[in-house]
Design a protein that fits this description.
Order of helices and strands: HHHHHHHHHHHHHHHHHHHHHH
Number of strands: 0
Radius of gyration: 41 Å
Helix content: 55-70%
Largest sheet: none
Pfam family, one: TPR_PATROL1
Number of helices: 22
Protein name: MHD2 domain-containing protein
Number of domains: 2
Distance between the termini: 110 Å
Length: 578
């Protein structure tokens, strides 16, 4: 049966006249029969017209296949169907409305259903987002909004507002389909980026020579891919950039955090390099210079350190420049976070869909995980390289050399010379924005190493009150190295991180009797009356403090005086040998 659209306006008027005549000849209750006939004519006509538009769209597509970026068939069809609906609204619906109050609603509902069959079949076969697919889905979304608008306007005066027929128009969900495809595309890109991170880090050598700025090429490559990913996202012709942006930012943020975590992995930490403290012993008066003690302890300590480091990195090839390049790399990533966020804001401002968005509220454009990972990563790497230098690289002049035997003949000079060489490496390698942090950690490690030698250096070390001046002079020389005549660390930082050592050094000038009394007093204060019969032996660990029992006990253990030796023997029965 040929439809109303094909017959034209005159035929539509004849149809209405026939219906009118029939209506006049029949009872008033039979008006529904006439309305149903018009409903049938409208639906049949629009189905025929839609099929014709389908053929036209296909022809248009074939004709334009040699053109640059030709429109997809369903995008062409959506435009044609929209024009058909407007034509129906203005030409035929006014004629038919007298006998069918919802003529326009029936027409657009029919067209909506016809296009729904095509677009839903199309969506079900789509797995990746492309420019053509976005054009189709956006065209479908626009068509649906236009059809619904016509239906709402036509049904405004009806009894039920046209709800019954409008229910025949279930949403195409084109916008949701776009969102799902974009999210799928984001996940694919993020997964690929993570693979790139693994591949780049597997090939990374962390050598200063690979980059003039002392940064890893892998970081440059990852940041480049992130730039390309952001550009590709904002080039998508979609209306929902602000809505979908958080998914992309979260994915990129996790990849960058992953890079930071992998960059610091395997480099150890502060505790990796601090040697295990030997058990407490009393000082064996007159025997502290025996070579057998030096050789035995040196051998034991070297084995302990080598075991620790081998567990950490397998081949002990973790040189000082390598963690410095890692630190530079993390600094580069952190500085790029601000640049990336500014670029995202710029992209958003240029998006038509985001021009009304308030940007002052953050708009989920922030990288939440990477900055914290950066801070933690730089902290761990900085401490690792500092404590590695002091307790591993320089162990031969610190742990195995400083104050072993006679303090006056084993002073700090050798340690300072090698520390200075490492300071030069750090100054030449580490970026100036994080250089102070690394040098500060090196000073902290040096102070910790200095105190560890004094308070836990093993039975090859013993000090008399006369050695206090040597120790104080050596510590001043250590601070001066980091002060560097005003070109090094600020004086307030040096004072801050040398405070513990400054607090402990006066104990070396204190006479043994006073140390014993002070030790008894602070132990009773700490443990109460239960400590009177037998003073508890504290664990052999810091932190050091001149008013803390363990620190005072260790001062007595390393005091080269008979009074200290007798007190330790009587109170704790400490051995004089390990």
């Amino acid at each position: 049966m040929q439809g109303i659209v094909s017959l034209g306006v005159s035929a539509a008027k004849i149809l209405v006249e026939d219906v009118t005549t029939e209506y006049r000849r029949k009872k008033k209750g039979e008006v529904d029969v006439a309305r149903n006939r018009i409903d049938t004519y409208i639906r049949s006509s629009l189905h025929t017209a839609f099929a014709q538009r389908m053929e036209k769209a296909d022809s248009s597509r074939r004709a334009s296949k040699n053109q640059l970026n030709p429109l997809p068939i369903l995008a062409i069809l959506a435009k044609d169907v929209g024009e058909l609906a407007v034509h129906e609204k203005h030409i035929f619906s006014p004629v038919l409305k007298g006998w069918h109050p919802l003529a326009a609603v029936v027409a657009v509902a029919t067209l909506h259903g016809c296009y729904a069959n095509e677009i839903k079949q199309f969506i079900s076969g789509v797995t990746e987002l492309s420019s053509d697919i976005v054009q189709v889905l956006r065209a479908a979304d626009k068509l649906e909004k236009d059809l619904v608008q016509i239906a709402v306007e036509d049904a405004v005066d009806s009894d039920d507002g046209g709800k019954a027929i409008i229910h025949e128009m279930p949403p195409y969900e084109a916008e949701a389909a776009i969102g799902n495809l974009v999210k799928g595309g984001i996940k694919t890109r993020v997964d690929r980026l993570k693979e790139c991170v693994d591949r780049a880090l597997l090939q990374e050598v962390w050598s200063q020579q690979t980059n003039q700025e002392g940064q890893a090429p892998s970081a440059v490559e990852i940041l480049r891919i992130i730039d390309e990913t952001l550009d590709a996202f904002f080039q998508l012709p979609i209306p929902t950039h602000p809505t979908l942006l958080p998914d992309l930012i979260v994915g990129l943020d996790k990849c960058l955090q992953y890079y930071v975590i992998k960059t610091k992995s395997g480099c150890g930490s502060r505790n990796t390099y601090i040697p295990t403290m030997p058990a407490l012993t009393g000082c064996e008066i007159g025997s502290k210079f025996q070579g057998v003690w030096k050789k035995k302890e040196k051998s034991q300590n070297s084995q302990n350190r080598n075991s620790q480091v081998a567990t950490m990195n397998g081949d002990n090839s973790f040189g000082t420049p390598q963690p410095c390049v890692r630190i530079n790399t993390l600094h580069r990533i952190r500085s790029e976070m601000d640049v990336l966020e500014k670029r995202i804001i710029s992209h958003l401002r240029n998006c038509e869909s985001a021009r009304e968005v308030e940007f002052s509220n953050g708009l989920s454009k922030k990288f939440e995980l990477t900055p914290a990972a950066f801070v933690e990563g730089v902290q761990q790497l900085s401490e690792a390289v500092a404590y590695k230098i002091v307790f591993h690289d320089l162990s031969h002049v610190l742990w195995d050399g400083l104050y072993v035997g006679e303090p006056s003949s084993s002073k700090i000079d050798s340690l300072l010379q090698e520390l200075e060489q490492n300071l030069l490496i750090i100054s030449e390698t580490v970026h100036e924005r994080v250089r102070t942090r690394v040098i500060t950690d090196l000073m902290k490690a040096s102070c910790d190493g200095f105190l560890l030698v004094l308070l836990a250096g093993g039975p090859s070390r013993a000090f008399s009150r006369q050695d206090s001046q040597i120790i104080e002079d050596d510590f001043k020389a250590l601070k001066d190295l980091f002060w560097a005549n005003g070109d090094g660390l600020p004086a307030d930082l040096i004072d801050k991180f040398s405070a513990t050592v400054r607090g402990v050094l006066p104990l070396f000038r204190t006479d043994t009797e006073s140390l014993v009394e002070r030790f008894r007093h602070v132990t009773l204060e700490t443990y109460g009356l239960s400590a009177r019969s037998r003073l508890p032996l504290r664990p052999t660990s810091g932190p050091w403090n001149p008013t803390e029992p363990n620190t005072l006990l260790r001062m007595l253990c390393y005091r080269n005086e008979e009074t200290a030796s007798k007190f330790l023997k009587k109170t704790y029965n400490l051995p004089k040998k390990l």
